Amino acid sequence: MTYIDDLVEEYKGIINDYIKSGNEDQLAAKAHDFSEKAIDLDISPDEMVALHIELISAIPLTSYEDIKASLNVLQEIMIRFGFTYKDYKAMLNKMERHDQEMDVASSLQETMLKTEIPAIENVEIGAISVPARKVSGDYFNIIEHSDGKLTFAVADVIGKGIPAAIAMSMLKFGMDLTSASNPPSKSLKRLNELVEKNVNKNMFVTMFYGLYDFKDQSLCFSSAGHEPVYLYHYEDDEFEELDGKGLVLGVMKDTEYEEVSSRLEDNDMLFIYTDGVSELRKHDGTFINMDDIKEMIREARDQHPQDIVQYIYEALTRMRNQNYKDDLTMFIIKNKCSG
């Protein structure tokens, strides 16, 4: 028996029960429940009337009072059905407008936030950013400076839709307008002021902001509430967790950010990610262990960073519980220059 067959039998039962009892309150309650089920099965008002006519022909209603009672049932159903159907159509229209908004936001991101990974001698970079829906809350940017330094950032906007896309565009242009390789702490302070002044008060941004010097392979970075990053030391086959302390962007105007320094020896890699990686849920509902990610990096350590992030992403996709999807971004910078 199909859902439609069940619904027909239920409707027949409502008619028979009302004919026997004449209970208006009971009819109203049953009509409400029935109309919601009918809407879920995408039954239109016209189809509802046709169903009633077909049932009346099948049910042996012998008296005028029985026929009148059946019409009362239809009337009550249609009243409830009409309100529910109206709400249903309004919901569909709202969803359609939302989809259109998401299309606009997605197009905005694709046009304004596209970041090319530069080809740089002695440095290899790999990045992957996959949205959970049409519009991503994650973002990364790379800027090569004329003084032999490289600025790179990974951000996670706490907010969705067009406002999030606009916020990320603002961050990108805020970074791109700076031609000089400013210290990360100073750059984050300026971006924080930009976000605090121009972005919705309910929207915040976490960001890792790094500066790499090609000449001496030195790294300095600041963090605005972002996930800790991992520096993989190739020679020792060990990971070092690097975590700069700092408030997320957009909370307090005069926030100061600490700066952390390190160095990338030959074949060392810096692994940056968003919480879509660290908070990924597996099939059993448990969170992924970052030790699993580290092991994947070890397994693929001799490959190009782009191949490494792709390898990790494919592994995570197989492990991930599809009911818990989030934006996911990974970024690796690898030193290929012997210091």
From TrEMBL:
Organism annotation: Jeotgalicoccus halotolerans
InterPro entries in UniProt: Bact_Sigma-Reg, KaiA/RbsU_helical_domain_sf, PPM-type-like_dom_sf, PPM-type_phosphatase-like_dom, PSer_Pase_RsbU_N
Domain PPM-type phosphatase: 124-335
Gene3D superfamilies: KaiA/RbsU domain, PPM-type phosphatase domain
Domain of life, source organism: Bacteria
Keywords in alphabetical order: Hydrolase
Alphabetized GO MF terms: phosphatase activity
Protein name: Sigma-B regulation protein RsbU (Phosphoserine phosphatase)
